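If you are new to this repository, start here. Below is one unmodified record pulled from the training split, so you can see the exact layout before writing a loader.
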Amino acid sequence: MSDYRIRAATRDDTDDVLAFWAAAAEGTSISDDRDGVAGLVARDPDALLIATSAAGDSAIVGTVVAGWDGWRCHLYRLAVDPALRRRGIGRLLLDAAEQRFVALGGRRGDAMVLDRNTSGRAAWAASGYRPEPHWTRWVKPLAAG
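And here is the target side for that same chain:
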């Protein structure tokens, strides 16, 4: 039995998720604010997965966003409490995300990982993910922020 449980975040988790990302996630995203997290949870209530202790402590120890757009399976914001890394929390989160994708009809998961995030890259590789060097991410901000 795992020492951790995975559940979908709710709107009530917004502030805790943002505080967790500030402490545990690598880099920041344009959507790392109350409106961004609340919008994600409202649009797809099962997309933001959080890990907590199975012992009943509600503190967040890990997160992943498992976004499904009906065509592709996108993974974002995989983060684990730095003091609890290498205990299988990331693997549990990815297993839950992958199960969600399979149930929705997804065929392949993809993740955006910062090039400078060597520990993150190692974690993704250990979970069976590989970079595709022939792709470059192109972005255009759509709103001032």
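Two things worth knowing about this chain: The CA atoms of residues 30 and 36 lie 8 Å apart. The mean pLDDT is 92.
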